[in-house]
Amino acid sequence: MIRPASGADHDRLSAIQSAALDHPWPGLLDVAIDGPPLVLVLDENGPIAYALAVPDHPVAYLAEFAVAPPAQGQGHGTRLMDGLLDTLRSEGFETLRLTARADEERVRSFYERFGFSVTDHLPDHYDDGDGVLMVLDL
What we know:
The protein is an alpha+beta fold. Helix content is 30%, strand content 39%. The protein has helices spanning 10-20, 26-32, 76-90, 105-112, and strands at residues 2-4, 38-43, 47-56, 59-67, 95-101, 117-126, 129-137. The protein has a seven-stranded mixed beta sheet. A hairpin with a 3-residue loop joins strand 2 and strand 3. The model has no long low-confidence stretch (mean pLDDT 93).
């Protein structure tokens, strides 16, 4: 089931964030769970993945997308992304943006399957490398 996050999810989402993201930003998750950023959770007897999108209507920025490592590669990310896109479309958003590491082909390929395309290269965006801006028209 895909649902909005609640304060009760904080500890589990923090654990997923730490385990799944190379450079987690705990402070963002701390404030986002209670909004206004949108945090959706994929719940399978407890959270196993989450998406954190920052709204700036009509554009949203996907700040974090994380699947717990033991649950990766099983289609959970696809289910969560489908749910996020449906939610954003139903709320009238027109564009979803995100940044990704330029050298992470697996990550970029995942987003490209949903129709995201690279619109800009971001030299030195990360402490240890370049990034790309990816955009999807909803």
